[in-house]
Amino acid sequence: MRVRFVLSQIGNGLRRNIAMAVSVVLVTFISLTFVGAAVLLQMQVDKAKDDWYDRVEVNVYLCPAGEASQACPDGEVTEEQRGEIQALLESDALSDYVQTVYLETKEQAWEAFQERFGEQEWAQRITEDQMQYSFRVKLVDPEQYQLIYDELSGRPGVQQVIDQRSILEPLFLVLNRATLISVGLAVLMTVTAVLLITTTIRLSAMSRRRETGIMRLVGASNLFIQLPFMLEGAIAALIGAGLAVGGLWMGVHYIVEDWLAESVRFMPFVDTGDVLTIAPILVAIGIGLAVISSLVTLSRYTKV
Which pTM was predicted? Predict the structure, then answer.
């Protein structure tokens, strides 16, 4: 009997305030879509970092022939210097930091150069002797680049040490800033959702103040009086959360999986599985916001 009464009260409340209920659904949908987009964007950044950082290397360029700069005062690196550098990279002291070491010879560097720029007229004037030896060092942890840099920079025969991560950092900086913008919009829309849910519950409680007063006179508990209002907000928020999850799923499926992933194959992307992973979180956030907003409002407006 009590369950039937609560359900009837929920139905009556939703019918009386249909416009406000739809507003709660829409604002919850929009706010949780921004929240989900921010989470997915950060997951995308993390996936890209994990994949790209796993493949980046430290390039150690050795002094080339005819080079007489501050880094290479003695000219081209000698075979002895090259051997000492390789021995250092493969030593036990750096074994915890260096995963693999690959020496690229002048011939290999020239072949790679010609393969990339060989059709250019200026590139045809470059000879093999003008190329330079280099080491490509794959680190166990790419974050430990500074240690390798400190060990090799300034050593005889080393022209420069370059971390390929420096090429990727600007891209990740842009993506992280985009995430922050999404988070800011998500927070703004969430605050809007809370205010609208609070207003909706307040109007509903005020319109049924006489009914709640009668219920209190006949001995109904606070929970029994407040439950229909709380469930109204929770149902509207649940519908909004469902729409947000559905919108994110469609966006990831059709835009990311069917388009981006097929066009850009050199990096991993988030997928619909990631959307389903965060779906319970979005639903919990939506219902939690509705319940908390309801409790705050009802503590005042359901009193006689």
Answer: 0.66
